[in-house]
Amino acid sequence: MSDTPEPQSAMLRAIQVMETVAHADHSLSLTDVMRLVGLPKPTVYRILNTLEESGLLMREIDGKRYMPGPRMTRLAGETLLRSPQRSARRAILEELVEQTGETCNLALPNGANIMYVDRVESEWPLRVNLHAGSSVPLYASASGKMFLAHMPKRLRDRYVISAPLIKHTPKTLTDLASLEAEFANIRLKGYAIDDEEYLLGICCLAVPIFNAEEQVVAAVAVHGPATRVNFPDSLIHLDALRNAAEALSNTLDWA
Q1: What is the pLDDT of residues 63-97, one digit of tens each?
Q2: Are strands 65-68 and 103-110 parallel, antiparallel or unpaired?
Q3: Which of 153, 157, 190, 150 is CA-nearest to residue 176?
Q4: How many C-beta neighbours within 10 Å does residue 105 have?
Q5: Ordered strands of the 135-137 beta sheet
Q6: Going by C-beta distance under 8 Å and a sequence separation of 6 or more, which residues neighbour residue 93?
Q7: Residue 58, phi then psi, degrees to nearest 5
Q8: Can you state the angle between helices 153-162 and 176-189, rounded to 10 degrees?
Q9: How far is CA 27 from the centre of its chain?
Q10: Angle at 229 between CA 74 and CA 80, to 5 degrees
Q11: pLDDT digits (tens, 9 = 90+) for 112-159
């Protein structure tokens, strides 16, 4: 009888490895993955290489540890965008818009960007056109800075070193010291702001959405013209945002 695994078995093993890396709260080495999935080294090594080549996984700078790749994060966002829970999320965002009077969105990390998974516009005639599926650089958005602030420092350093930190406006933070101070402040206060850092005249306030393991998996935000959503006045929306974040966490498949 052949030792070659059936195609379905090989596929399921690859999924098992991919899920193991995705669920970990830090990057994993080959030895870590072997221990967690209980498969032999040659098998795990072959699967990791295939997943890396496909963009589903990527390695850290040292080349020894694996983490979710851009294709996996994009797939997660697309899946959530079209999931059966979308109507429930939409209802929560619609209620949040009614409470705040401003446009609100749900965002996920997507490689070097954040992706708006869902978005409900306010009734105001002056608003910015960032529809569901749009992406904005992590470092220049409230939701993106929230994800960066809660990343393991090793992964955050990799992002900051490798990403092109472009000054989209005079207020965009691009030097490392300012960004690290901003991340520390976000972790301390539990919210993030975009003070016209991506688009002049547009401000944003975001709070994290946690899964059952207390990991930040998404963010919910309110944004609008600086004349209405400015700091610190926008903090009046914090309670509504945090209540929405708790409700939204129950609609996420991995919460």
Answers
A1: 788 888 777 776 766 666 566 667 788 899 999 99
A2: unpaired
A3: 157
A4: 26
A5: 135-137, 113-120, 103-110, 216-225, 202-210, 192-195
A6: 104, 105, 106, 118, 119, 120, 220, 244
A7: -145, 160
A8: 140
A9: 16
A10: 20
A11: 788 888 888 887 655 555 545 467 889 999 999 999 999 888 778 878
